[in-house]
Specification:
Layout (H helix, E strand, L loop, with lengths): L11 H10 L1 H9 L27 H26 L13
Helix pairs in contact: 1-2
C-alpha cells in the first residue's frame, strides 16, 4: 500500500526538539520530507492531509446533520459528566438513541 506522500514542512520548534535529541535524530527528521502515514481507505491522502470528509455539501446532507445534532450534543455531555465524576474511561455506545 502506498503512503500519503504529502510534503512535510519542518517547523522551528520541531527542528529544535530534534536537535536537542542529537544529530542522528535531526538528520533523520530532515531526510524525511514526505508524510509516511497510510491514506484513508478509498482516498490518496491520510487523514491529516486531506483524506477525511469536510462535512455535508448537499442540502439533504445538511438536514440529516441538523437532525443528529441534539443526539450528538447529549452524548458528549454524558461523556463530559462521566469524566468529571473522576472516571477516566469512555462510555460504551448505547443502541437506539
Amino acid at each position: 500500500m502506498q503512503r500519503c506522500g504529502a510534503k512535510i514542512s519542518h517547523t522551528p520548534g520541531k527542528l529544535a526538539r530534534a536537535a536537542a535529541c542529537g544529530e542522528q535524530h535531526l538528520a533523520a527528521l530532515l531526510r524525511r520530507t514526505t508524510c509516511m502515514a497510510y491514506p484513508v481507505r478509498g482516498k490518496r491522502r491520510c487523514r491529516h492531509h486531506g483524506g477525511m470528509s469536510t462535512g455535508p455539501l448537499t442540502d439533504q446532507g445538511k438536514q440529516r446533520t441538523a437532525l443528529n445534532l441534539p443526539r450528538v450534543r447529549a452524548a458528549r455531555a454524558r461523556v463530559k459528566v462521566f469524566a468529571v465524576a473522576g472516571n477516566a474511561q469512555i462510555l460504551p455506545a448505547t443502541q437506539g438513541q
